[in-house]
Amino acid sequence: MTDLIFGTIMTGSSFTGEAFIITTICSLLIGCFIAFMYSLKNTYSKSYIITLALLPAIVQVIIMMVNGNIGAGVAVAGTFSLVRFRSAPGSGKEITSIFLAMAAGLATGMGYIGIAVIFTVIIALANLILSSISIKDREPKEKTLKITIPESLDFEGVFDDIFARYTDRAELEEVKTSGMGSLYKLTYKISLRRDASTKAMMDELRRRNGNLEITCSRPVTVRSEEL
User: Fold this and answer.
1) For the residues of 102-142, what is the DSSP string, one character each?
2) Do both 119 and 191 map to the same domain?
3) Which of 12, 59, 101, 137 is deepest in the core (most CB within 10 A)?
4) 18-45, pLDDT tens digit by residue?
């Protein structure tokens, strides 16, 4: 019984038509199950659900085609390494579902249908349970603060007393001119104190900068790329 569940239906490095049909049907069923489980607790688009449903079967066929062929396997790996997704960045749940579909396709492609089914059910149920648990997002302590000031205001140390009351650390990261040089735009990385009020801090800042634009947001990571 154990061998039937955790064993493979493949024989050697080749596969039969019967094995191909069985694994493809199982891959499609598993893909539909993954898509259904994802749709229960998440917002989604039709194209994404279709992708989840078909991805295990696509990966399964690729694995079956390169099974035992080292040259073909290297070629496929090189092709996948060139793939770049140009759509909007996916959320953690979307990426998890994509990897689950790929893992299921890998398992069925190697003939381990029982493992693919059990693994998919366990991960899908675990994902559903964890999604149902109320876990509050932790508010980041560090923030990016952008302040616009007139050119007549000396920006060096002008807000130090305000930062001393509301932050544990404030570091000026960028200064640039705007409005034909009539304005300065300052970018700070700040670490708010535990009980500090963001609104109170911004009220004091806007009184100091002449009520010009101020933005306080989540940390902005700038990654420089060398050409």
Assistant:
1) HHHHHHHHTT-HHHHHHHHHHHHHHHHHHHHS--PPPPPSE
2) no
3) 101
4) 888 888 899 999 999 999 988 887 778 8
